[in-house]
Write a structure and sequence with these properties.
It is built from 17 helices and 30 strands. The chain is of the alpha+beta class. The protein folds into five domains: 125 residues, Rossmann fold; 154 residues, Topoisomerase I, domain 2, CATH 1.10.460.10; 129 residues, Topoisomerase I, domain 3 (Distorted Sandwich), CATH 2.70.20.10; 126 residues, Topoisomerase I, domain 4 (Orthogonal Bundle); 38 residues, no CATH class. Strands 8, 9, 10, 11, 14, 15 and 16 form a seven-stranded antiparallel beta sheet that branches. Strand 20 and strand 21 form a beta hairpin. The chain starts with a strand and ends with a strand.
Length: 693
């Protein structure tokens, strides 16, 4: 007969834990929070120390009844929500709803859902940590004070349905500021000159470096022509060779932020998707005979710390699978980031020996992709450094210096398993140089001058924005995914080619916020608020005093804004396209995925149309239509004939307006995803290929 009730957040987690605990425990799910502030009102008494008014969440009555009935049949009740502030708050709300004594040791936490970790956790139950609860409660009240005061103002002055928040407003401002940088950017011309040389029969490249050992930039075609005239009949001589051995260490195991960034780079996952799939892996997957097992440690963490046991297991695995040379003699420790709470381990696999291949049949496609990323990153983090031989050759021709760089992997180390991705378009040049000696005179096969222009800073991708927010101390691991989702749903930003662009609405709202609530957009102010929340959790600050410190200035600004904020009318841009349903002019609207056309007679006519972008290529199938850029339901760009459905030609790769020189068929542009490849031009039929970047 069961004598203990265990309450977790989700059925999946309940199923996994129930298997480990046995028949003496009933494990049930609360389905997340059971109490919250009311949606219909502020729910915070600013006159009485910011006392919150909590109510049972609509639809949770039956869940609470089931939990109350179960609690009457047992001696002990354990609250095993996730091991973060949110989980602590869920446990506290459950304790209130079920009349559990807060001073009783009813709280159980574990960083991984494995049999050993769960059983050990139940040996050491503790009281609910009210400092953690108060930190979460303060964040919730802060967001309510900002949102429920500024949002109605924006509804009245701009349009209904808008919202304002501390972290989301800063995120939108970062995107807008970056767009201003891009628009203000003035490109500057520069040139490169590459010498294609031969050492015997082996070819290699050397780029112009400068004159008389001083680096020289080429800013015009005139300067390039002067260089070419100077070296036209010159002899190329290797004057200096530098060889050195370089060691490269692996990246640290994942934190929440770095996982979101890397999943965006390598898997094209949105932050919200990454966290959803990670939650599934954490809560448990049925892996056959072993039943349901939590495959990764807790996915909300800012720490790169690893348990000594996990490091020892990794060392043994690496020695067995790759050889002793790839294993570390001493565990590698990673430096702790400033302001990191370091409450939980880094994200890692719970079962080191369960490599991705062994779990392929049990995981969905997305689960397998993310698990592989986490597993490989962890294993690589505990492997020996890679050793590379690098060579730099300086080549003189008539006093002009050209430089050739090359490298070779001498010992792959961790690179045998995993190499961290990068946001930069250009990748490290790992080309090998042929054997060279000082005094050698390579032969020139071609000299290649090329014009370039400096580029503006790139727009924010999800990965870049998460990284920037983390570096500024804005938000915490659990806030990034919902923040990025919210700013798109509200129409403040849109996605174009996987990059954030601000909308007119976003610029208007942030402009008003800058005028009337500058502290909300101040990155230092917002980062300090995060520090204050950390201090509350650590017991170093009182939550009501933190709220009072914020609200005293905020209330004054709110009063000024209510009196002086002007109404803003956003007029739609009218297109020259008529609605094919009612004949009214179509207008441009900005949605979550960029601009689209909508009928100006809305709400009488709700017709919408995608904005068709021609690529300047005739349809290769019907020869009558034009190829246009379209988007799939998942917002992926593809190309098709504008005569659809009469012509069903489609292509994921962008068709080009020239023919294959080999077979005269269509050429397409492919975005490189394979090792070392950038964008390439390929024939749609034969094996012709040319590399463009």
């Amino acid at each position: 007969m069961a004598d203990s009730l265990v309450i977790v957040e989700s059925p999946a987690k309940a199923k996994t834990i129930g298997k480990y605990l046995g028949k003496k425990y009933i494990v049930k799910a609360s389905m997340g929070h059971v109490r919250d502030l009311p949606k219909s009102q502020m729910g915070v008494d600013v006159e009485d120390g910011f006392e919150p008014k909590y109510i049972t969440i609509r639809g949770k009555g039956d869940v609470l009844k089931e939990l109350r009935d179960a609690s009457k049949k047992v001696k002990n009740i354990y609250l095993a929500a996730d091991p973060d502030r949110e989980g602590e708050a869920i446990a506290w709300h459950l304790a209130h709803s079920l009349n559990i004594d807060e001073e009783k040791a009813c709280r159980v936490v574990f960083n991984e859902i494995t049999k050993q970790a769960v059983k050990e956790a139940f040996k050491h139950p503790r009281k609910i940590d009210m400092d953690r609860v108060n930190a979460q409660q303060t964040r919730r009240i802060l967001d309510r004070l900002v949102g429920y005061n500024i949002s109605p103002l924006l509804w009245k002055k701009v349009k209904k349905g808008l919202s304002a928040g501390r972290v989301q407003s800063v995120a939108v401002k970062l995107i807008i500021d970056r767009e201003k940088e891009i628009n203000a950017f003035i490109p500057e011309e520069y040139w490169s000159v590459t010498a294609h040389l031969l050492a015997g029969e082996e070819g290699f490249e050397a780029k112009f470096y400068g004159y008389n050992n001083e680096k020289t930039e080429l800013h015009s075609e005139e300067e390039v022509n002067q260089l070419l005239a100077k070296i036209k009949n010159g002899e190329y001589t290797v004057v200096e060779l530098k060889k050195r051995e370089r060691r490269r260490n692996p990246a640290a195991p994942f934190t929440t932020s770095s996982l979101q960034q890397e999943a965006a780079r390598k898997l094209n996952f949105r932050a919200a998707k990454t966290m959803m799939v990670a939650q599934q892996l954490y809560e448990g997957i049925d892996i056959g005979k072993e039943g349901t097992v939590g495959l990764i440690t807790y996915m909300r963490t800012d720490s790169t710390r690893l348990s000594p046991l996990a490091q020892e297991e990794a060392k043994n695995y690496i020695s067995e699978e790759y050889g002793d040379a790839y294993a570390l003699t001493e565990p590698r420790q990673f430096s702790k980031k400033e302001k990191a709470q370091d409450a939980h381990e880094a994200i890692r696999p719970t079962l080191i020996n369960k490599d991705p291949g062994s779990l392929k049949e049990y995981l969905s496609r997305d689960q397998l992709k993310l698990y592989r990323l986490i597993w490989e990153r962890f294993i690589a983090s505990q492997m020996a450094a890679a050793v590379l031989d690098t060579v730099t050759a300086d080549i003189d021709v008539e006093g002009a210096k050209f430089r050739a760089n090359g490298s070779q992997v001498k010992f792959p180390g961790f690179m045998k398993v995993y190499v961290e991705g990068t946001d930069d378009a250009q990748k490290e040049d790992d080309k090998m140089l042929p054997p060279l000696v000082e005094g050698q005179k390579p032969k020139l096969s071609e000299i290649e001058p090329k014009q370039h222009f400096t580029q503006p800073p790139p727009r924010y991708s999800e990965a870049r924005l998460v990284k920037t927010l983390e570096e500024l101390g804005i938000g915490r691991p659990s806030t990034y995914a919902p923040t990025l989702d919210t700013i798109q749903k509200r129409g403040y930003v849109a996605m174009q080619e996987r990059r954030f662009v601000p909308t007119e609405l976003g610029e208007i709202v942030i402009g008003l916020m800058e005028e009337f609530f500058p502290e909300i957009l101040d990155t230092e102010f917002t980062a300090k608020m995060e520090d204050d929340l950390d201090h509350i959790e650590e017991g170093k600050a009182r939550w009501s005093e933190v709220l009072q410190g914020f609200y005293s200035g905020f209330a004054k600004r709110l009063e000024v804004a209510e009196q002086h904020m002007q109404e803003v009318e956003i007029e739609d841009e009218v297109s020259d396209i008529a609605c094919d349903k009612c004949g009214s002019p179509m207008v441009y609207k900005m949605g979550r995925y960029g601009k689209f056309l909508a009928c100006s007679s809305f709400p009488d006519c709700r017709n919408t149309m995608a904005i068709v972008k021609e690529v300047g290529v005739s349809c290769p199938k019907c020869a009558e239509g034009q190829i246009v850029e379209r988007k799939s339901k998942k917002n992926r760009v593809f190309y098709g004939c504008n005569r659809y459905p009469e012509c069903d030609f489609v292509s994921w790769d962008k068709p080009l307006p020239r023919k294959c020189p080999k077979c005269e068929n269509m050429l397409v542009e492919k975005k490189g995803k394979s090792k070392g490849k950038g964008t390439t031009v390929n024939c749609a039929v034969c094996d012709y290929e040319e590399e463009t970047t």
